[in-house]
What we know:
By secondary structure, the chain is mainly alpha-helical. It has helices at 2-12, 18-37, 42-49, 52-72, 79-86, 92-97, 105-122, and strands at residues 132-136, 142-146.
Amino acid sequence: MDxxxxxxxxxxxxxxxxxxxxxxxxxxxxxxxxxVAGGKTMEQVMRxxxxxxxxxxxxVEHYEKLEKQIKKDPAGIDYxxxxxxxxxxxSYTDYLFSLPMxxxxxxxxxxxxxxxxxxxxxxxxxxxxAHNSIxxxxxxxxxxxxxxx
Length: 149
């Protein structure tokens, strides 16, 4: 596994950004681990993946096609379909809630709530944002808070 990932990384360097390379390394590392955990031998997994240089060429070609499509016709991209495929056919929120324990869902949800309230504060007439929140007080009573303008 380490040899495959090392060669793959070498083949991608200079052809993709560091972030794209990191993403691809995580994708292939996770794939290999999932296949082995599913009962396949490392030899079977490596045979299925094939030559890391060819895999790198395929990855770079994919990124190039995607970049051309985005530049050519960004409105023509079905983003809903993209996210459905990216998250294995489930909605983004269902995907987030299905993450394993310790993946940071609580922090992620807190960040979403904070951003929503931040934008609501900055755009008080925009109904897309929550203009109130419920706050739990120590004695268990709930109070409705409104942003003061």
